[in-house]
Specification:
globular; 8 strands
Length: 277
């Protein structure tokens, strides 16, 4: 683990050159999440009952108990992997993460989020040129060739990256402003070398401060259903899960519009948390 000086971190808008690095961060942060979600669905009582019924029918056709048991499970896993791509990308969004990232980098690229640690230490964080140089050949290969319309870009929302001395340490996704006074964090990822150093907390706090200054009153976020670490992380930041405690009528009407993602047989794949700013 590398000791991280949070006052040197700059949260800035993602640029074209950052796309591939952000995709790699997402892939690293989602590692194992899809498999845990599939295991969660497979172990639900209704799903187990259906698999048992199908296995019993196959047992009459296939003279092998192992094959009769393995075939339906294998086919269901393939089906879940095909129909569950967005659950490990941008949570709570119908857009796959590769489209989300590729469409959201345009705009005011020099815009940054406030860093409360820089005020505490008295230092002014700055950025250097990225260590990785992109040659013209690489650039032609990496940058998207399709034209992104302003409507599609607006739909994609914003991606912010945590930059320290030209190295991207983490990122946070914020959905487009579809509802007045409501924002949604779709993904928070910290690099494996910089976890438990406060980077994720810094990204969330900085984005919350920006959205509060812009007039937002509530922030939602989705957490993968089996992720205890993600749930504990947002609870420490003051988020509450929808359905906990006694909500007044106004809260109920707001929360009714934010529903968890659902997968096979309607099983929830995410838990929805919210925080009033």
């Amino acid at each position: 683990m590398v000791r991280l000086e949070l006052d040197k971190v700059v949260m800035r808008r993602m640029k074209e050159d950052d796309i591939e690095m952000v995709k790699a961060l997402i892939k690293e942060g989602c590692e194992g999440t899809e498999n845990r979600l599939i295991l969660h669905v497979l172990t639900r009582p209704l799903c187990l009952f259906i698999l048992a019924v199908i296995s019993s029918v196959l047992r009459c056709l296939v003279h092998s108990f192992i094959l009769a048991l393995a075939i339906p499970v294998f086919l269901l896993i393939i089906f879940l992997k095909i129909t569950m791509p967005r659950s490990t990308g941008v949570l709570g969004s119908s857009r796959p993460y590769w489209d989300y990232v590729g469409s959201s980098y345009r705009g005011t690229q020099d815009e940054t989020l406030p860093n409360p640690f820089s005020r505490i230490s008295g230092k002014t964080p700055g950025t250097k040129k990225p260590r990785r140089k992109i040659t013209p050949k690489d650039k032609d290969k990496e940058l998207p060739t399709e034209n992104v319309s302003p409507e599609r870009e607006q739909e994609a929302g914003l991606v912010w990256v945590a930059d320290c001395d030209g190295e991207i340490l983490g990122c946070i996704f914020r959905e487009s402003e579809k509802r007045a006074d409501i924002r949604r964090i779709c993904r928070v990822v910290a690099g494996s070398w910089y976890r438990r150093e406060g980077l994720g907390r810094l990204l969330v706090h900085s984005l919350e401060q920006r959205e509060m200054e812009a007039g937002a009153l509530r922030v939602y976020t989705h957490v993968p259903f089996p992720s205890k670490l993600g749930e504990a992380f947002f609870r420490k930041l003051g988020y509450r899960q929808i359905g906990e405690g006694t909500d007044d009528e106004e809260d109920f009407e707001k929360n009714k519009l934010e529903t968890p993602e659902r997968g096979f047989l309607g099983h929830p794949l995410t838990k929805v948390f919210y925080k009033d700013l």
